Amino acid sequence: MGTPLDEEPGRSFEALDEEECFSLLYSSSIGRVAVSLGEIPAIFPVNYHALNGAIYFFTAEGTKLDAAIRGAMVAFQLDHFDFADQHGWSVLAVGKAIEIHEPLLRELAVHFPLQPWAPGARSHLVQIWPDFVSGRRITFGRDGPGTW
């Protein structure tokens, strides 16, 4: 369970431990990959699969693949917000992106519950092995602000 960082009646903000961050990574399938284009950050939505501590997604030629080919450090982020009950969480994973070429792992990827959602050929498998993960959970409660 996370560590409370700040609490008020009906409101809380807590840091999530690494185990809970990975549990949330494993429970979802849509996230965002952030890469640097020189000094400009670029963020792309991807559908993904997390397995054994790594994050995988398919991509086409372009910015995300270029980052993987050069072994760039990237950020991967996912979140969930429940506006009706006014709570949510966010997880950030930072690590090196690499393109996977090994035939065995590429064959395994065929069995992932992972099919690219975007149209066009997306045949390049990218792996992010996080060096760092962090997460936060926030609850406003019924008496908290109406917007985030």
Rg from alpha-carbon coordinates: 17 Å
The biggest beta sheet is recorded as:
9 strands, antiparallel
Q: How many structural domains can be distinguished in the coordinates?
A: 1
Strand content: over 45%
Poorly predicted runs are 144-148
Succession of helices and strands: EEHEEEEHEEHE
CATH fourth-tier homologous superfamily: Electron Transport, Fmn-binding Protein, Chain A
Q: What's the count of strands?
A: 9
What labels describe this entry?
148 residues; alpha+beta; Pnp Oxidase, Chain A; 3 helices; elongated; disordered C terminus
Describe the structure.
The protein is elongated, with a radius of gyration of 17 Å. The longest helix has 10 residues, at 18-27. The protein has 148 residues and is an alpha+beta fold. The chain contains 3 helices and 9 strands, in the order E-E-H-E-E-E-E-H-E-E-H-E. The chain has one domain: Electron Transport, Fmn-binding Protein, Chain A (Pnp Oxidase, Chain A, Roll), CATH 2.30.110.10. Strands 1, 2, 3, 4, 5, 6, 7, 8 and 9 form a 9-stranded antiparallel sheet that branches. A hairpin with a 2-residue loop joins strand 3 (30-37) and strand 4. It has helices at residues 18-27, 63-69, 103-110; strands spanning 3-8, 11-16, 30-37, 40-47, 49-51, 54-59, 73-82, 87-99, 124-139.
